[in-house]
Specification:
Alpha-Beta Plaits; globular; alpha+beta; Arc Repressor Mutant, subunit A
């Protein structure tokens, strides 16, 4: 049986969800961002308790198709930005369409309707948060960050960064109180 879980955005989320499932007496087979497969075929008898445990940790079970699709889009984008970086050879619309087996315009309209932001803006916000993270580590040059995140140039990255944050990347790097937003809050 598959469960769709909202707000799973990182590897630690996977570990926490696995722990909650196991404490609830369930046997996870595979755990991906937003999607868990368990051995059990019916969880009606423990669903309320499981839902309460997940919600206490900031997660939620999803039942409707729209929510599942939105969460899959978010998970794919987060995975793309956090793990695949510049290894993708197609554009975002093709990437999402291929993975979700749906027309991009349908996905885009649904996402905008439910989230109040376009897929592209959500993708840009994810990339900017990754840039902030990399700037905080202070281990890479802006040129290396631009290459890593598949920007066409440092100027493009800098312009997008300033448009979203109001700061230049170099100014942001100098800030003492570098507040980043959590991925699930974007």
């Amino acid at each position: 049986m598959k469960l769709y879980i909202k707000n799973m955005v990182c590897s630690r989320c996977k570990m926490v969800v696995k722990s909650v499932l196991e404490k609830s007496g369930l046997h996870p087979i595979s755990i991906e961002l937003g999607e868990v497969e368990i051995q059990e075929s019916n969880i009606d008898h423990i669903k309320a308790g499981l839902l309460q445990n997940l919600q206490s940790l900031g997660f939620d079970l999803m039942d409707d198709k729209k929510s599942k699709t939105i969460e899959k889009i978010k998970s794919l984008i987060i995975d793309l930005v956090q793990n695949k970086n510049n290894k993708i050879s197609v554009n975002l619309s093709d990437y999402l369409s291929q993975h979700l087996l749906q027309d991009y315009s349908t996905l885009s309209n649904l996402f905008s309707e439910v989230e109040g932001i376009t897929i592209e803006k959500y993708f840009i916000h994810q990339k900017i948060e990754k840039v902030k993270e990399l700037l905080m580590y202070d281990e890479m040059t802006l040129n290396e960050i631009a290459f890593l995140l598949n920007y066409s140039s440092v100027a493009h990255l800098s312009n997008q960064f300033k448009k979203v944050t109001g700061f230049s990347p170099s100014y942001f790097r100098q800030l003492k109180d570098k507040k980043r937003r959590q991925i699930e809050d974007l």
